[in-house]
Amino acid sequence: MSTLNQYDSYLEADGPAALIIRQYLTPAEGPDGVLFPSTFAAGDGFPGGYNIDPAANGVNVCLVDSVGSQANRIEPIFKEEKYKALVPQITVNAGKKTVSILEAGHRAGDAIVRCSELQQDLQDAFKALLEGNSEPLGKIAPTSLLFGAWDSRDTQAKVPRLISSTIRAFNVRKLTRHAQFIPAVDYVAEGLLSEPEDLRDAEGRVKGKHPFAQRGFNHVPVTKTESTHGGVIADGGIRRDATLALAALRLLTVADDNAKTLALRRYILGLALVAFTYPPAGYLRQGCLLVLDPEPKEPHQFVEVFADGRREACKITHADALDFATESAKAFGVGADRAVAFDPDRAKKDLVGDGSGKKARKSKEAAQPK
Questions:
Q1: How far, in Å, are 108, 149, 160, 275, 362 from residue 357 at the CA level?
Q2: d(CA 293, CA 31)
Q3: Tens digits of residue pLDDT in 292-301
Q4: How far apart are CA 308 and CA 27, in angstroms?
Q5: Distance set, CA 212 to CA 182, 189, 202, 308 (Å)
Q6: Is the dihedral of CA 10, 14, 17, 20 positive or negative?
Q7: Can you tell me the distance from the alpha carbon of 69 to that of 169, in angstroms, rounded to the nearest whole number?
Q8: Which ranges of the chain does DSSP label H, i.e. alpha helix?
Q9: Is the dihedral of CA 10, 12, 16, 19 positive or negative?
Q10: Residues 6+ apart with CB under 8 A from 221
Q11: pLDDT of residue 361
Q12: Per-residue pLDDT at 198
């Protein structure tokens, strides 16, 4: 069996529905270490802060890193020297900054690439996708086929996410913290600064916020009502769950061309296996450095899951995945690298809806029943 066809069983209808990774993590400081989960803005009845959901059995579940956040951490690996030849390197120069499409939040559907000379090529690629041809998008932005994209401002084409990964902590104890800023010098006592005459009221209380405090010249205590998030302790452990949806990958086609469809699926599978087996980044944010638990309560898992529920061990290593991805990329033909510029004129037209995006939205709205 050659390297190129060694994973063709994953592309067959009776192949596994998905690959699953389940890893147990722990703070670098130890199992009882404090970690800082993601924080979210308030809205729709959610007060803001940590996303902690109660469970029926009394054990709460805290979202440490979301699907979107995990995708944004994994995708940029394809900029690294070891992997960059596997995908086209598309960059957009915007002012003094150069942005890779691998870092754009909405990938091929992001405003920064939509408002460049790539606009027409991407629009054509999304239209082809709607007609059952994923090859054009695979030539320009193959990672959009891995991590998902939605051309919501134009063709409305949606690309399902093939790889999803989430980190959660269980049975967490929420902590709070306070802080006090102490300046290097008591500027008023030392005669270096004088308070404004109208700063205090008749009872000697500061009216509003002390201007010295705003500029770092005064003590700033945090009151009890101003306590902020202090992290959590995960008494029930931390777990990363990742899925590679092979059943969804098998939906990618190149119109009615079986040979090109196979080449595309092999290529995307190769990229997916590289991303899926890439060692997860330990540093998520300040106060959240996670490592593999060397002594988990349950064993780590890497399995193939079939439609009938069978679960079989998967032994693909990252090196195996990279070898396969390299061969499948050569067979498919990686798209050309491109460096383009952000076009302010296109952006202005996009802002007022002057273009096919507006027409697409209007057409979609017109089709809805009144």
A1: 14, 16, 20, 32, 9
A2: 8
A3: 999 998 999 9
A4: 36
A5: 12, 13, 20, 68
A6: negative
A7: 16
A8: 67-74, 111-114, 119-130, 135-140, 142-147, 211-214, 246-249, 258-277, 318-332, 344-351, 356-366
A9: positive
A10: 180, 181
A11: 45
A12: 66
User: How many Å apart are CA 5 and CA 193, to the nearest integer?
Assistant: 76
H/E run at residue 94: strand 90-94
The series of mean pLDDT values per 10 residues for the chain, 370 residues long, is 88 97 95 92 85 84 94 94 97 93 90 92 95 96 95 90 96 80 74 71 68 69 62 94 98 94 98 94 88 92 97 96 97 96 90 58 42
Residue-wise burial string across 119-156, b where 16 or more C-beta atoms lie within 10 A, e elsewhere: bebbbebbbbbeeebbbbbbbbbbbbbbbbbbbebbbe
Distance (Å, whole) CA 342 – CA 337: 16
Chain-centroid distance of CA 48 in Å reads: 20
* Phi–psi pair at 290, nearest 5 degrees: -110, 145
- Count of CA atoms in the C-beta half-sphere (13 A) of 90: 30
DSSP state of 221: E
Are the CB atoms for 301 and 21 separated by under 8 Å? yes
Chain-centroid distance, C-alpha 299: 26
What φ, ψ does residue 298 adopt, rounded to 5°? -125, 150
For residue range 249-291, what is the model confidence (pLDDT) as tens digits? 999 999 889 999 999 999 999 999 999 999 877 888 888 999 9
Distances 345 to 35, 57, 159, 367 between C-alpha atoms, Å: 45, 56, 28, 31
Residue with tokens 């086929």: 145
List the chain domain ranges.
8-171+230-363, 180-221
